[in-house]
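Quick note —
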Amino acid sequence: MSKQNDLSRCLVALEQDATLIAVIEMGQGSWLVAGIVPGLDRYPLKKLGPDRDALLQLLHRWRNEAAKAGHAIDRIAVAYEAGRDGFWLARWLRSQSIEAHVIHPSSVPVSREHRRAKTDRLDTELLKRAFLGWLRGEPKHCSVAAIPTLEDEDARRPGRERQILIEERTRIINRLKANLARLGVRGFRPNLARAPSQLEALRTPEGVAIPTNTMAEMRRDLDRLRFVKQQIKEIEKTRAERMAKAPDEQRHVATRALIRVVGVGVETADMLVEEVFSREIRDRRALARYAGLTGAPDESGQRRRERGLAKAGNARVRRGMIELAWGHLTHQKGSPLSAWYRMRTADARRGVRKTMIVALARKLLIVLWRLATTGEAPEGLQLRPAA
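Predicted structure written out below.
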């Protein structure tokens, strides 16, 4: 029985004599397209510029060649690896009535030779073999990504931009503090609004003012810091206005439900909803895998060891959940999850707390997922009053 949202295998029967199969090795300057065309003894290979219209013409030409060979093409299936170009090509191909799929690069098996040959032509052969097995319905032959809509992708941009700006703000502050530490000056707080006016009063341990070039550099850094902080405020203001304008939208309802949990802030709630809870997750195991909160066992013969987190999922969700799990122990001390963590770490063995915090993050993610998607109230968690 097939599972909901199961992308581990193709659920449509493959009629190879009536299906044109093509894979694309996409580069910044060119695309290499390899095909399996019914009725042709050869496996065509064509190098194109990064041009969608040229790709469509090529697929139609191969379809006509198959028709001349006596094979009417009822289905055109195209695949390429996820990468820099994202999902726009898959969405465009689907709008042209062509079946398009995006494959996770890490799921394509490669040779384990120490110095294996690697060219675009060989990569298309590997990709073609993996895609053909997936089309035949072989489970877990390769991993196919769910193609998001343009609206879904756009909804994730404010949160990701804000994260980049937060990192940039931290870099600027650290650079300012490092410049002053080099001169022996400590205690200056660049993040304060009055920081620019305090620069002139700073003195080195020798009692002299900050050197001219260093002072000019720091003023420029403070200008950049002020601009970055302004952009962060604009993103947060726009998000608040968007939630107030459409309070009944499903994403906003889920965000407000998560904010009610003590210890979950608006930034974490927005990140979880946009990055993971807005997706159609099959079950809790798929949820943990997507978040990268599953282990990587290494078992061979008598050897049994754990290599830590697989880190194969969404890094933003994984980092956010680890931080949230540590905070959960502080803000939700009486919850069943906190009691479970304390019980499992009571013996205080070395490294057990870090291992168990990942397990706690995984359990907490499942609880929040159920709250956001089904409204199931988590048992034992402290909730803020509904707004």
